[in-house]
Structure formats: C-alpha cells, structure tokens
Write a structure and sequence with these properties.
heterodimer; A: mainly alpha; 2 domains; 5 helices; 77% helix; flat; B: mainly alpha
C-alpha cells in the first residue's frame, strides 16, 4: 500500500461522510412529508428485497471455504429459513440454523 | 370483579421500547465479534495505523464497505476508485433510509441524523421488523427501539476491531463463524415472508443476486434489490385486484 498518511485519512473521512449522507438521505430530506402510494408500496419490500440477495452468494460461495460450495452451509441456510417461516421466531431460526451447521460439521468430522 | 384493582405502574413506554431493542439487538454481538476482529487484523496487516483502523470503524461503521475499501487499498487502486466502490457497497442503505421514512420521518432532525449514523443492516432489519409487526408504536418509541438495538452491537463492533488490530489474530475459519452472518440475516428475514408478494420479492432478490454476483462493488445487489422491490409491489397490486 503506497498512500500517504494524509491520503489514507482522506479516504476514511470522505467514506465516513459519504456513508452518513447515504444513510441520512431520504430520512433526513423527506421527513414527515407524504410519499406517493406506489413508492410506499415499493419500500414495504425493502428488507425482503435486499437481504436475501446479499446473503445468497455467501450461502452458495462461502467466504471461509474460499468460495468452494459447501452442502453443510446450504443445509444450515435452508433450515434457518424453514424454521423462521414456520415459527415466526428469529431466535428459534438462529438456533436451528446454528445447530444444523455445527451438527452436520460434527457428524462429517466423525465420519 | 372489583373495580378497585391495583393500578399497574405506568411504565415509561420509550424506556421499555429502548430495552426491548437492547434485548433484540443483543444476539448480533455474536455476529459483530468475528467480523470486527477480522477487520482489525486485515486493516493493520494492510499497513493502516491503529488510529486509522479505528477511524475507519468509528466513522464509516459499515463492515462490507470497510472490507471492500481495504482490499482495494492493498491493490493500490486510485483514491477515487476506492471511494466510489466502497460507497457503492453502501448504496443499499439509501433504500433502508427511504423505507424508514414512513416510520421515523416525524422524529426531530437530530434524532433522524443519529439514527442515520447507526443505520446498518442489523439495526435496520431488526427495527423495521418490529415497526411492521407493531403499527401502534409511537414515533418516540420507534426511535428508542432503534437506539436500543444499536446499543449492544456498536461498542462490540468498535472494541473488537481494536482487539483484532492489537492482537493481529483472526478467529480461525474452522469455527465457521463466517456463517453466523448469513444465518442471522436469514433468521431475521424469514418471519417477514408473510405474503406471496414478500416471497416473490425474496425469490427474485436471490435469483438476481446470484446471477449478478460478479458485478463490481455491490452494484449487482442494487439491481437485485430494485427488481425484487418492483416484483413485490406488482404482485401486491395483482393480489389486490384478484381479491376484489
């Protein structure tokens, strides 16, 4: 890495300000003004539209295996989703997913 | 039945919303620890000073973008490119910001600014799930809840970056802690799949997200999210027409 200390701090500060402005953007500028119905309709799907697409590549090509597909991780992800949909409870879903992950890892380690 | 039942102590609703947030945010400590330690290790390995690594974590406070920036800096990319790529990774948070408007838009500006600083994946998803499930929450309760969710995770994110930078040793891959993040995000999203429109949106998000995974700096994710939101809205309209 051959940046000067000043350049590194510049990157950090501009990234910090830029990230804040992205996060502040709509929440800061729109405030309590009414938004169009179709926009509200779109925004209702934000969480289910962003997170699955963000997580899916990590499930299929995990970081810890250097992108090598791992059936255990896929199984754990599926178990998490199924338990989450079924119980509607976040903690049960986390627990079920983690138990599947470590359970299956334990079994394959023994075999 | 007697009419003179003991009156329950009037609880401070903002305070109890805050503590509910703390409780719901606590599990994210598990997720923050391995990633923040790793960031501390990678940042100092890359040649950042301790102050610079900590500056990153405190000022930017967005894991994925921090990792992307360090990786590009190790490759000696131009400063403009580092900034552009890292900020592109964070653009999804503009969607988060917009989707919080109906719930938090009426809060005072300085509270909205404070929430914006703390608006990352974990605090956002936890809070929006609560707001959707409890439409009766007041704006003040929503603000308190959001800050509650941020309370356990933020000090760990910052503190464990410091530990990683000082110790220089990441948690071994064999512990599979990398997978805590997918599991926790999936566990948060799954209970939100409450209609055909939500399921369709999630399916489109996964399909497009996987198809465009090689696009640079999270731009594929933005396209995936936009297509998924549109899908959700259109399926919702279609279901309403059919119900009539």
């Amino acid at each position: 890495m051959n940046y000067s200390a000043f350049e590194i701090w510049m990157i950090i500060v501009i990234m910090g300000m830029g990230t804040f402005l992205i996060r502040f953007s709509f929440l800061g500028l729109i405030g309590d003004r009414q938004m169009p119905t179709f926009v509200l309709r779109l925004l209702r799907y934000t969480p289910v539209a962003v997170l699955p697409g963000m997580v899916a590549p990590l499930v299929i090509w995990p970081m810890a295996t250097d992108g090598q597909f791992d059936p255990i991780r896929l199984l754990a992800a599926l178990a998490t989703v199924l338990i989450g949909v079924w119980t509607r409870n976040v903690l049960w879903a986390i627990l079920g997913g983690a138990l599947t992950l470590y359970g299956a890892m334990g079994i394959t380690a023994v075999l | 039945m007697t009419t003179s039942t003991v009156k329950t102590q009037p609880k401070n609703p903002a305070k109890s919303a805050y503590w509910a947030g703390v409780r719901d945010g606590a599990p994210f400590i598990l997720m923050a620890v391995p990633f923040s330690v790793l960031f501390g290790v990678i940042a100092t390995d890359a040649g950042l000073t301790l102050a610079q690594a900590m500056g990153f974590t405190v000022l930017v406070i967005a894991g994925a973008a921090q990792f992307a920036a360090i990786q590009l800096m190790v490759e000696n990319a131009s400063i403009a490119f580092v900034l552009l790529a890292a900020l592109a990774v964070n653009l999804r948070m503009a969607m988060y910001s917009a989707s919080l408007v109906p719930y938090l838009g009426a809060a005072p500006l300085w509270k909205r600014a404070f929430i914006a600083y703390l608006n990352f994946d974990q605090t956002y998803i936890t809070s929006i799930a609560r707001y959707e499930a409890r439409p009766e929450m007041t704006v003040g309760e929503r603000v308190s809840y959001f800050l509650g969710v941020a309370t356990p995770i933020t000090p760990f994110w910052i503190g464990m970056t410091l530990v990683g930078a000082l110790v220089g040793q990441a948690i071994p891959d064999a512990w599979a802690l990398d997978f805590i993040m997918p599991i926790m995000f999936l566990a948060m999203v799954a209970p939100m799949l409450k209609s055909l429109a939500h399921v369709s949106a999630a399916a489109v998000s996964v399909a497009v997200g996987l198809a465009l995974v090689n696009m640079p700096a999270g731009t594929g994710l933005l396209i995936a999210a936009a297509s998924a939101m549109l899908t959700g809205a259109l399926v919702e309209i279609w279901m309403e027409r059919r119900a009539r």
